[in-house]
Amino acid sequence: MKKTDVVLGLQWGDEGKGKVVDVLTPGYKVIARFQGGPNAGHSLHFNGESYVLHTIPSGIFRPGTVNIIGNGVVIDPVILAAEVEQLEAGGADLSGCLKVSKRAHLIMPTHRILDAASEAAKGKTKIGSTLKGIGPAYMDKTGRNGLRVGDIVSGKFMERYEALKAKHLGMLSQYDYSFDVAEYERQWFEGIEKLRRFEFIDSEYVVNKYIDGDVPVLAEGAQGALLDVDFGTYPYVTSSNTLCAGACTGLGVAPNRIGEVFGIFKAYCTRVGGGPFPTELEDATGERLREAGKEFGATTGRPRRCGWLDLVALKYTVMLNGVTALIMMKSDVLNGFDTVKVAVAYKTPDGETPTVPYELDGQLEPVYREFPGWSEDLSKIRRWEDLPRSFREYVEFIEAECGVPVKIISVGPDREETILR
Question: Which SS3 state, helix, strand or coil, does residue 309 take?
């Protein structure tokens, strides 16, 4: 049976999915985003230029590819319009190659206000929302009164918009929060008009037709597996299923049609916002990782929390996603460390555990395995055989523990700074 491959992040997002999709896309005709919203920030670097994609699939710069925004994605027309404008100013031709699922939900201006009001009301218990309105949009989706892309051409668009807006304004009256929706609403309707230039499709039929025709399809995830609404570090999670299973529900693809699952992870760990982070380094080593890795959010600009690789969590997400090939990113950031550490278990009040417990709180202490570091500059290397022995031993240990080969190693941000095994 013909299959679709999946690429997704295995940590807390920011693993480098944009570059990986860009590297993989020569082998695929169709790239389809299957969940998340404009809180995603997929960075691509090539020909001396840098681009950040928030909603549009990362295959957009490869000529001849079809890029689909799937039904599992939530779309802010203002952000999407700005993204389109930026890409076209940079020379990208989006005409005919970008298609949008009719079943994708729209983020309304009042969704953004609800997000901000709710987060402000939480005080010290904030979850670190990007304040893009994504959580409230998914709440309306599961509450069965969301606004969808297909509604734009339904003839009842304004009626449905005003009804949902009225509901939101009623909810906002419960908060001590001042706001003015008028200006963003004006931009939002301009964005809706710009959205109309792209083809609205029944993406579930379109994607399956491509698969039936043996056309290579790559499903692109956003955020990371440890932010999954069911299996992530709840409640510090995103509002969608970031796992491989999300590709099935976010595109309308049956489970038995999933082929290769490419799992992306950094050679260390990072996290943005609140939530548990067992291997976090709040010291000079953590700061060194942040500076060397330029660990600042592509979407928010916020400094990322940094720490050593958490193999307990990585093995967990490899299991949940059925990963068939691992992709290690930012290996070059570890250049020059005398010692590199990997967490192989957690110490808890009940003893040591090699698995992720229900509660990932401050009582967890990582148990580390140490490896000798390397001084060579990995960014100039293009062959596995030329990599330092200590680095290869580090990679081989990860492979042995996860039971999955590391097929791609990134040694820099540019698409050329990549080692294919």
Answer: strand
408: tokens are: 């791609």
Residue 413: cis peptide before it, omega within 30 degrees of 0? no
pLDDT tens string 87-108 = 888 888 888 899 999 999 999 9
In the numeric block, the tokens 């698969």 are attached to 211
Q: Which of 22, 42, 54, 115 is catalytic?
A: 42
Whether 105 is catalytic is no
Catalytic one of 5, 14, 228, 332: 14
94 with 88: CB under 8 angstroms? Answer: yes
Quick one: tokens of 21?
A: 């999709």
Distance CA 342, CA 32 (A): 33
Mean pLDDT of the chain: 92
Tokens of 419: 């080692």
Distance CA 195, CA 143 (A): 25
Q: Would residue 14 show up in a list of annotated catalytic residues for this protein?
A: yes
Of 224, 220, 211, 214, the C-alpha closest to 253 is: 211
User: Tokens in use for 217?
Assistant: 């399809």
pLDDT at 58: 83
In the predicted model, what is the mean pLDDT of residues 127-145? Answer: 87
> pLDDT class for 294, splitting at 50, 70, 90?
very high
Question: Per DSSP, what are the bridge partners of residue 51?
Answer: 44
User: Whole-angstrom Cα distance, residue 385 to residue 389?
Assistant: 9
Q: What angle do CA 251, 255, 260 make, to 5 degrees?
A: 90
pLDDT at position 299 is 64
